[in-house]
Amino acid sequence: MIYEGKAITVKEIEGGIAQLNFDLQGESVNKFNRLTIEELGAAADKLKASKDIKGLVVTSSKDSFIVGADITEFTELFAGSEEDLVANNLKANEVFNTIEDLPFPTVTAINGMALGGGFEMCLATDYRVMDTKAKVGLPEVKLGIFPGFGGTVRLSRLIGVDYAIEWISGGTENRADKALKEGAVDAVLEGDKLVDAAIDLINQCNDGKLDYKARREEKQGKIRLNAMESMMAFEISKAFVAGKAGKNYPAPVEAIKVMQKHASLTRDKAIEVEAKGFARMAKTNVAACLVGLFLNDQELKKKAKLWEKEANDVKLAAVLGAGIMGGGVAYQSALKGTPILMKDINQDGIALGLKEAKKLLTKRIDKGKMKPDQMADVLNSITPTLNYGDFKNVDLVVEAVVENPKVKDAVLRETEEMVREDTVLTSNTSTISINTLARNLKRPENFCGMHFFNPVHMMPLVEVIRGEKTSDKAVATTVAYAKAMGKTPIVVNDCPGFLVNRVLFPYFGGFAGLVRDGADFQKVDKVMEKFGWPMGPAYLLDVVGMDTARHANEVMAEGFPDRMKDENKSAIDVMFENNRYGQKNDKGFYKYETDRKGKQKKVVDEETYKLIEPVVQGRKEFEEDEIVARMMIPLCLETVRCLEDNIVEAPADADMGLIYGIGFPPFRGGALRYIDDMGVDRFVELADKYADLGPLYHPTEKLREMAKNGETFFG
């Protein structure tokens, strides 16, 4: 054994060839944490000092090669100064450079996922051979940073500027065929042939058939473009990527600027440029928020895994109500491998549900994500029915009928009689109390909410709502089924609107107040989109549907009359009363016309201003900061109340629910992180400034205590 550590071992395997193997003890995956980098440095020094080694094969004992850096270390790391971050990266790069400079040929055998620092490790060797099912990439921009272990330097010289910009600024995970075609790897083979192929490459190098030193010189030298070619490549790319990423996500463009800056430098100087650029990005609030989101997401996954251990298997599901929502649930379940019965009371409903599933599957075929025979397999996993014939075999039922408590109550009671005693019943309600719906059930312990968001196939969140009598088994089984459907489940306790809608409607309340006080709804939309929302509140109301919004608002007003009940008629009420329901009938705050591609296009409608005139107290020009404050304070305060009322278990649950459920701007991290970033004391001061607008703007006593004590939600 040449070297033996807790993450890395090095041994001679044959003919003077060494194998450096990554196998981080106590972890299911390999990642670059402090220990792994230290051991890689020690192993590299041993290899460098060895007199008898003729080549090195780099391997992994895990299913993945290396999934990247240990993100859990980022929070502490990024809290340091820029100078410390630069020094840390340069120290790590010394290790990668030592691997690249070893006095013999080196090959990495990529047996699985190699991302971020994992792929940068691969780039440090002379050659790369890759499993047919593996993926490689540099996804750091998704965390608000860019590669810092030499990735921008080596990849831009290995595969060329254009491809490197695409890989790095897009943060893509690339399949083996693409990696081979674009020159990132040298061969693609089945996994069991990788080591033999790597050894063969080393032997070819030692026999003089391959010039590995020339390959190194290419990676360590300047980018081979003249001044004009370099300027054209980088300037055009910056403009294109800036338009695509938007100003709220600076890392993709900054990565291009860094590559442009080090294009005329050799490796060591180029890596210094990369390290300084990385440190600047790591100190941005965007990076802090996106890293926080990643960690929050990991927490959600851990919680879901714990629930899964307690769950019953869902081998057959059922959905009641075969409309657009029911068809979406059936499609998603069947697509991800759980067969499902789709029941409705009439054939028209069945036809609509199947039409929705077929439409979504056809889109997958058109985009090359599915073959026609696979579409047939998915459709065959959806069994339409007008009766309860096979319901004794169903493990979990999703009720997705009309949002009416009497109808839901009747359907749930009827279904309970037709299923086994251990079958879990769930309701896809967006507003109706789970405790209310459970009152007439014989087995309320088997019942919970399973709130999907529309459109089902696109929205990642599922709220699993626990009622007073819901058992852990029912929650666990529902969480497991949601995960099997490819969704992110968040367990919340019952209350009007649960988490997402309870928080969303104070936001709409802020909007209604602004319009009442004379704000132009179009300007409010533009300001909130500039803030980072995918659409402004007026546009969002049109998408949700004014009838749906009106109903949900009534539920919120009844549940929280002290702050959500408003006796005055709002612009939303006016839209509803004039049958302007939004996109569903082509008229709301905006008009909707069909473009050449058959998609709805938003158009300004002057009639809206005439209709809302009676509920508007004159026209007034608001500053952008005031619009943001009046919109965000109610949303943030209601999120705080959900945490204080134990509707959600932790701040991470609340923030991720808003990001996955209503598109809260990810680069801002979530409502509670938004408060943290502003400072709890400053947020309370801001809310007090608008206290005369009513209880929606009044901080809780606990939040005031947090402000006084200098506390935060994410310590």
Comma- or semicolon-separated keywords:
715 residues, alpha/beta, 2-enoyl-CoA Hydratase, Chain A, domain 1, Rossmann fold, N-(1-d-carboxylethyl)-l-norvaline Dehydrogenase, domain 2, 3 domains, eight-stranded mixed β-sheet, 20 strands, globular
Summarize, please:
This protein is of the alpha/beta class and 715 residues long. Helix 18 (434-438) links the parallel strand 15 (424-427) and strand 16. Helix 13 crosses helix 19, helix 21 packs across helix 27 (624-644) and helix 27 packs across helix 29 (671-678).
CATH class of the largest domain: Alpha Beta
Approximate helicity band: 40-55%
Shape: globular
> Number of DSSP strands?
20
CATH superfamily of the largest domain: 2-enoyl-CoA Hydratase, Chain A, domain 1
How far do the termini sit from each other?
A: 44 Å
What can be said about the biggest beta sheet? 8 strands, mixed
As laid out across the biggest beta sheet, the strand order is: 13-12-11-14-15-16-17-18
Please count the helical segments.
Answer: 31
Task: Give your account of this protein's structure.
The radius of gyration is 28 Å and the shape is globular. The chain is an alpha/beta fold. The model has no long low-confidence stretch (mean pLDDT 95). The longest helix has 24 residues, at 285-308. Helix 1 packs parallel to helix 3 (82-100), helix 5 crosses helix 6 and helix 6 (161-170) packs parallel to helix 10 (227-245). The chain starts with a strand and ends in a 6-residue tail after the last helix. The chain folds into three domains: 3-283, 2-enoyl-CoA Hydratase, Chain A, domain 1; 314-494, NAD(P)-binding Rossmann-like Domain (Rossmann fold); 501-709, N-(1-d-carboxylethyl)-l-norvaline Dehydrogenase, domain 2 (Orthogonal Bundle), CATH 1.10.1040. The protein is built from 31 helices and 20 strands. It has an eight-stranded mixed beta sheet, sandwiched between helices. Strands 1-2-3-4-5-7-10 form a seven-stranded mixed beta sheet, sandwiched between helices. Strands 6-8-9 form a three-stranded mixed beta sheet. In the central section; belongs to the 3-hydroxyacyl-CoA dehydrogenase family. In the N-terminal section; belongs to the enoyl-CoA hydratase/isomerase family. Keywords: Fatty acid metabolism, Isomerase, Lipid degradation, Lipid metabolism, Lyase, Multifunctional enzyme, NAD, Oxidoreductase. Residues 497-592 form the 3-hydroxyacyl-CoA dehydrogenase C-terminal domain. It holds the Pfam family ECH_1. It comes from Marinobacter halodurans.
